[in-house]
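lol ok so funny story. i was supposed to be doing the assay writeup but got distracted and ended up predicting the structure for this chain instead. priorities right. anyway since i did it might as well share w the group, maybe its usefull for someone
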Amino acid sequence: MKNQRGMSFIGTLVLIVLGVSITLLVVKLAPAYIEFFSVKKVLATMAQDPAFPAMSPTEIRNSFDRRANIDYITTVTGKDLDLSKDNGQNVASMEYSQKIPLLFNISACLDFSASTASSGKPAKIE
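and the output, tada:
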């Protein structure tokens, strides 16, 4: 009698379901992460702007909105920025969550945080 080798039909089916599940997660979650990396890029670009340290809160929010419009950022706006001062320098930071429906009543809640500060806890000015 020969020994059988290879995967059974059930084993193949389990691998297919697992592969489809992982693909579903990637397809659903990737846009949120792409947008978050765009937000980080906008904040980093704003921090490199020579006029940023002297900007008023309204100017910072308007600058963020203009840059976010160019990068197709729709989840957050300049109103969502937390503005503060750290050692006399402007710091713009943002924390937000996205709830992404996956399947039926199952959702993923993603928390994002980005800032122009390099480190440390800035003092709140607003």
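The chain is about 45% helix and 25% strand. Residues 31-124 form one domain.
back to the writeup now i swear
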